[in-house]
Specification:
CATH class: Mainly Alpha
CATH topology: Helix Hairpins
Number of helices: 4
Strand content: under 5%
CATH architecture: Orthogonal Bundle
Helix content: over 70%
Radius of gyration: 18 Å
Length: 117
């Protein structure tokens, strides 16, 4: 049980670090909370919204972890490290675009109904 408690403690430390040090993480969290509020207000399923938020935030945390690891290895220019960092950032971007598409598909029809458009 102590091992499990330590694992959760370390996981929460990772969340705290990302929240405190990564402006993009805070912005994505805010956008996610707004999207969840909209889902509740428009009475659409919150499941795809929650899953998109979790994916984007998880990838942002993975990107942060990879950048920290790469920076621990070397701060010098390295083409392989650049590829790794760029690919991780690209994964966040791709997930963010997908989340926007999901938001449009979920919210636009509900907004049209809500406002009679």
């Amino acid at each position: 049980m102590l091992r499990l408690a330590r694992s959760f403690h370390h996981a929460f430390q990772g969340l705290q670090h990302c929240y405190q040090s990564q402006a993009n993480f805070r912005l994505e969290l805010l956008v996610g909370m707004v999207a969840l509020f909209l889902a509740v207000w428009l009475q659409v399923s919150s499941t795809p919204i929650v899953l998109c938020c979790a994916l984007v935030l998880s990838l942002e945390m993975f990107n942060t972890a990879l950048e920290a690891l790469c920076n621990a290895v070397t701060l010098e220019q390295n083409p392989h490290i650049k590829i790794a960092k760029d690919a991780a950032a690209g994964a966040v971007l791709l997930a963010s675009y997908a989340a926007i598409v999901v938001g449009i598909l979920e919210f636009v029809p509900a907004l049209r109904i809500k406002f009679g458009i």
